[in-house]
Each structure stands twice: as structure tokens, then as C-alpha cells.
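Chapter review: from sequence to fold.
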Amino acid sequence: MIWNDRRIREWAETGGVTPYAEDLVNPASLDLRLGDQIREPHEIWSRLSVIDLRHKIADGSIEQLPLWGEPFNFATYWLMPHGKGCNFILCHSLEFVNIPDDMAAILYSKSSTGRRGVEHLHAGYGDPGWNNSQWTWEIHNVAPWPIKLEAGKPLMQQVMIRMTEAPLRNYAVTGRYNGQVGPTPERPKV
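The C-alpha cell string follows.
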């Protein structure tokens, strides 16, 4: 069962999401705003002619090449079209979320986001017990024009879905991204 606006408000007002703004609540979803940090692909990828995540070094060994550069703060960022600069980034939600043990959360692009040409890879899924975390969003520009991103503006929406019952092991036990802050790259599974 999907939560309605009344239930979303109750959850948000009792610590489900912070910072919380009532005007972000829709009939069956909660708008999430863009945080103020971005990660672009590591600059090494602009110099390589062959795409391989491994790189042979002088002694013959193999090193894993870095995928992402360091995060940087921004107020306004131009996401460029393919072939004209950076068109794929990691960014994050302004909000921290706490998913109850009997719930799951699904992210969707806002319709206005999609109509501008921003596509989200939907790699994020909020498992039960995913807590005190900002969403990391993998977005790219599929339009032929540059797209202006502004920190603090709504970009995505979160839908809350009640499960039939709580899982045997929640995300606090099985996951590796609880407590993430900012645009978080892949963390190796231990």
C-alpha cells in the first residue's frame, strides 16, 4: 500500500525526513531537493582512449582506476549534453531520510525534471532500515541543451510503500550505505 499525503506528513514530522518542508508533500509522494555537492567522473577518464576500469602500471601489476573525483560544493551547476562536457554526475538529496522497518521507498524523477532532459538511473531503492542517510542520485543529461541544476530545488520524488511485514534482516544489517552523506560512490561489499 502506498502512503498518502496525510501519512507522509506524519512520518516526516516525527523524524522521517530532515529538513522537512510541508510544501514538498504531494498526494502520494514527497519531493526531495538537490543537495549542494556533486561528484564528476574522475579527470583520468577524459584522457583515456580505451575504457577499462583496470590500468596496467610500470611493474606489470593492475590498479583499479578511480571512477569519481572528489565532491565539490555548488549553488548552480550546468549539466552538459553528451559530447560537450560533463553529462553524468553523482549528486545527493538535501534531505536525510529514515525508512521504517515495515516500509520501502522508491525514487522517481519529477515530471518537470524529465521534461527538461534530466534522467535518473534509478539505482536507488530505500530498503527497510535505511536510516540517517541522504540519497545519492546518478543523473545525466539526455537533452541536446545544457541543463541548469540548482542546489535546494526539488529534483526527485520519493514514494513510500508499506510491506506485508518487516523483513527478517533489514538494511541496517545487510546494507553498506546507511549514514551516507553527500554524493557517495560505490562502496565495496565486504
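Two observations follow directly from the output. The longest strand covers residues 30-39. The mean pLDDT is 89.
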